[in-house]
From TrEMBL, chain A:
Xref: Gene3D superfamilies: MetI-like (1.10.3720.10)
A UniProt-annotated Pfam family: BPD_transp_1
Protein's membrane topology: Multi-pass membrane protein
Protein name: sn-glycerol-3-phosphate transport system permease protein UgpE
GO cellular component, one term: plasma membrane
Chain ranges of the ABC transmembrane type-1 domain: 68-257
InterPro entries to which the protein is assigned, alphabetical: MetI-like, MetI-like_sf
Stored SUPFAM superfamilies: MetI-like
PROSITE patterns linked to this entry: ABC_TM1 (PS50928)
Organism from which the protein derives: Pseudosulfitobacter pseudonitzschiae
TrEMBL record, chain B:
UniProt-listed InterPro entries: ABC_transporter_permease, MetI-like, MetI-like_sf
GO cellular component: plasma membrane
Cellular location(s): Cell membrane
Organismal lineage: Bacteria, Pseudomonadati, Pseudomonadota, Alphaproteobacteria, Rhodobacterales
Entry's transmembrane regions: 37-58, 102-124, 136-163, 183-212, 233-258, 278-310
Membrane topology: Multi-pass membrane protein
Keywords: Cell membrane, Membrane, Plasmid, Transmembrane, Transmembrane helix, Transport
Superkingdom of source: Bacteria
Official protein name in the record: sn-glycerol-3-phosphate transport system permease protein UgpA
Assigned protein family: Belongs to the binding-protein-dependent transport system permease family.
Organism name: Pseudosulfitobacter pseudonitzschiae
Gene: ugpA
Pfam family, one: BPD_transp_1
Length: 272, 323
C-alpha cells in the first residue's frame, strides 16, 4: 500500500521518535560502562578516557563467572529439553488419531493462558520437598513443557508434505525414524524461531530463579545483577558493565539470525 | 487431511508379504497394542509435565487458599475455610494492588495495544525500506527486564542520572520520579511499554501480511483516502490479531511488571506501584503467609478469567458489527 505523502511524513516522525527513545537509553548504558569512575558522575555523554575497569570490578565484586555458568548451562539444557519434548508431543498431535486427542490438545493450549504466578506456590513447595533448591533441577524441570512449541511445531508438521513421509515409510522407516530423520530436519525455520524464543525466555527469566536460588554459586545472571544492585547500589559503572554482559548472548543471537528471527517470529508462529 | 494411516497397515506394508502370512495370530494383536500406545508415549513427557507443573498446582493453590500455614514443614497446615479471602481483600495492600492492577492494564491498552497499530501499518506500507526500523524496534524484546530496569534506574537517578543532566541544561530541576507516589507507577508503565511495543508491532505486521493488497488498490481506484481504507478495510481485518494482542498484553502486563516493581520500587512509595502479582509474592515469600498468598492467587485467577471473557465478548461483537 502506498500512503499519501503527509501520512508518510507523520509515520516517519512517529517511528523515528520511537526508535530514538529505544536507542538513547542503550547509548547511555554503553557509554557509562566504558567510563572511568570520575567521569561517570560528571555527566558528559561520551567517555573521554575509555576503560575496561568497570568490567574488572564486576568480576571482582560478584560471582559473575558462576552466574554466567549457571545461566548458560540451564539455558542450554532447557533449549534442548524443551525442543525434544515439544517435537514429540507435536508429532503425536499431528500424525496420530487417538481417543481424547482434541481434549488433550485443548489442555495444552489452555496451559498457555495460565501464567506462572498462578502455580508458583505449590511448585515452590514441591521443590522444597524434593530438595531441589539451589540446584539446576529447580531451574530446568518445571519449565520443560512448552505449549507454544507444541502448537507451533504441530502446525508445521500438519502442513508437511505427505509424499515424503509415505516415501520414508515405504522404505521401512518407523515413526521414530521418520520423525527425526525426515520431519525434524525439514522444520528449520520453526525450530530456529523456537530456539530463539526459548533461549530468550530462559536467559532473561527473573521470577522463578529469584525464588529457588539462594547461594551466590547457584544464581543466574539476572538474579546476580539484582543482588549486586541491592548490595552495591551506587557502583553504576560496574552495573552497566554487568547489564552489557547479560545482554550480549541475546544480542549475538539477534545479529546472527536478524532476518530469520523476525520473519519466522512473525509469519510462522503467531498467525497459526 | 490424509495423515492418519493405521499403524498396523504401515507395519504389514513394511514386512514382506510372504513373511506376514506366516505370522502366528498373536503377533498382529501385539503390534496393535503397540500402535495404540505409540501416540501416548510421544505425549507422555508433555502431559506429565503439564499435569505436575501446571494443572495440579492450580488445584493445589485452591486448597492452599483455605489453610493457615507458614511454609514450615514441621508445622501442619490448619484448615480455615474462606478466612484468608476476607483477610486479604480487607487489607489496604490489596486495595492498592487491585487499583494499581487496573491502572497497569488500563494504561497498557492505548500504549501497548493501540499505539503499535499505526506503527505497524506505516512499516507495512513502506515494505522492505522499513527493515532498519523493524530491527531497532525489536531490540528491547531481546534484553531482559532486569537490564532495562537497572538502565533506567541509572538514567533516572536523581543525583547523577543523565536525565538530570539534560534537565539542568534546559534550566529545569529534575524530579525524583521514583520517590513520588504519583509518578512512580508511570515510570514502570513507561519501561514496560518500552519493552513490549516493538514486539506487538511485529505481531500486527504478521496480521497485516495476510491482507490482500489488491483490495486496497481497488478502494484507491474508487477514490478512498488513507483514513477510509484504514477504517473500512485494515481495521476489521486486523481484529483477530487485535484480540490476540490484547489478551497476551494483559497477561504480559500482569506478570512482567513484577521485575521493574521488584527492582525499582519494591511496590512503594506507599504501595503506589504494587500490583496483585507483587502482593502475592509478598504474602507468600516475604511474610510466608501461604494462605494469604494462595487466596490472592485465586483472586488474580478470577480477575484474569473475567478479563479474558470480557475481551472475547467485546472484540467478538465488534467483529460481527463490521461484517
Amino acid at each position: 500500500m502506498q500512503l499519501s505523502r503527509p501520512m508518510l511524513i507523520v509515520g516517519h516522525i512517529l517511528v523515528l521518535a520511537i526508535c530514538l527513545s529505544i536507542l538513547f537509553p542503550m547509548a547511555i548504558v554503553l557509554a557509562t560502562a566504558f567510563k572511568p569512575m570520575n567521569e561517570i558522575y560528571a555527566g558528559g555523554l561520551l567517555p573521554q578516557v575509555p576503560t575496561l575497569e568497570n568490567f574488572g570490578r564486576l568480576f571482582e565484586k560478584t560471582a559473575f563467572g558462576w552466574y554466567i555458568w549457571n545461566s548458560s548451562g540451564t539455558t542450554l539444557l532447557r533449549v534442548i529439553g524443551q525442543l525434544i519434548i515439544g517435537v514429540l508431543a507435536a508429532y503425536a498431535f499431528a500424525r496420530f488419531r487417538f481417543p481424547y486427542r482434541d481434549v488433550l490438545f485443548a489442555l495444552v493450549l489452555g496451559a498457555m493462558m495460565i501464567p506462572q504466578v498462578l502455580t508458583m506456590l505449590p511448585i515452590y513447595i514441591m521443590m522444597a520437598q524434593l530438595g531441589w533448591f539451589d540446584t539446576w533441577w529447580a531451574l530446568i524441570v518445571p519449565n520443560l513443557a512448552t505449549p507454544i512449541a507444541v502448537f507451533l511445531l504441530r502446525q508445521h508438521m500438519m502442513s508437511f508434505p505427505n509424499e515424503l513421509i509415505d516415501a520414508a515409510q515405504m522404505d521401512g522407516a518407523g515413526h521414530w525414524t521418520t520423525l527425526w530423520r525426515v520431519i525434524v530436519p525439514n522444520l528449520g525455520p520453526a525450530m530456529s524461531a523456537l530456539t530463539i524464543i526459548i533461549f530468550i525466555d530462559s536467559w532473561n527469566e527473573y521470577f522463578w530463579p529469584l525464588l529457588v536460588t539462594e547461594s551466590a554459586q547457584s544464581r543466574t545472571i539476572q538474579i546476580g545483577l539484582r543482588e549486586f544492585l541491592q548490595e552495591d547500589m551506587n557502583d553504576y559503572g560496574a552495573l552497566m558493565a554487568g547489564i552489557i554482559v547479560a545482554s550480549l548472548p541475546a544480542i549475538a543471537v539477534f545479529l546472527f539470525f536478524q532476518r530469520r528471527v523476525m520473519d519466522t517470529f512473525v509469519s510462522s508462529g503467531l498467525k497459526g | 487431511m490424509s495423515l492418519h494411516r493405521p499403524e498396523t497397515q504401515l507395519v504389514t506394508g513394511a514386512v514382506p508379504v510372504g513373511a506376514a502370512s506366516g505370522q502366528p495370530l498373536a503377533h498382529p494383536k501385539r503390534t496393535d497394542i503397540a500402535a495404540r500406545l505409540a501416540p501416548w508415549l510421544y505425549l507422555a513427557p508433555t502431559v506429565l509435565l503439564l499435569a505436575v507443573f501446571t494443572y495440579w498446582p492450580l488445584l493445589q493453590t485452591a486448597y492452599l487458599s483455605m489453610v493457615d500455614w507458614n511454609l514450615n514443614p514441621g508445622q501442619p497446615a490448619e484448615f480455615v475455610g474462606l478466612d484468608n479471602y476476607g483477610r486479604v481483600t480487607g487489607s489496604t495492600l490489596f486495595q492498592a494492588a487491585f487499583v494499581n492492577t487496573l491502572i497497569y492494564v488500563g494504561a497498557s491498552i492505548p500504549l501497548k495495544v493501540l499505539l503499535p497499530i499505526p506503527v505497524a501499518v506505516f512499516l507495512w506500507s513502506v515494505g522492505q525500506k522499513g527493515h532498519f526500523y523493524r530491527a531497532i524496534l525489536f531490540m528491547p524484546t531481546l534484553i531482559s527486564f532486569v537490564v532495562a530496569g537497572i538502565a533506567f534506574l541509572w538514567i533516572l537517578n536523581p543525583i547523577f542520572g543523565y536525565a538530570k543532566v539534560i534537565f539542568a541544561e534546559l534550566g529545569l530541576r529534575f524530579p525524583n520520579l521514583l520517590a513520588d507516589p504519583d509518578s512512580a507507577i508511570w515510570v514502570i508503565i513507561g519501561i514496560s511499554t518500552w519493552k513490549v511495543l516493538g514486539f506487538n508491532v511485529l505481531i500486527y505486521l504478521a496480521g497485516l501480511a495476510s491482507i490482500n493488497k489488491e483490495l486496497i488498490e481497488a478502494m484507491r481506484m474508487d477514490g478512498a483516502g488513507d483514513i477510509t481504507i484504514f477504517r473500512r478495510l485494515i481495521w476489521p481485518l486486523l481484529t483477530p490479531t487485535l484480540t490476540f494482542v490484547t489478551i497476551s498484553t494483559v497477561i504480559f502486563t500482569m506478570q512482567q511488571v513484577f521485575t521493574p516493581i521488584d527492582l525499582m520500587t519494591e511496590g512503594g512509595p506507599s504501595n503506589s506501584t504494587t500490583n496483585l502479582f507483587y502482593m502475592i509474592y509478598q504474602y507468600s515469600f516475604v511474610t510466608f503467609d501461604v494462605g494469604g498468598g494462595a487466596a490472592g492467587t485465586m483472586i488474580l485467577f478470577t480477575f484474569l478469567m473475567i478479563m479474558a471473557f470480557v475481551q472475547f465478548r467485546v472484540l467478538d461483537r465488534r467483529a460481527h458489527y463490521q461484517q
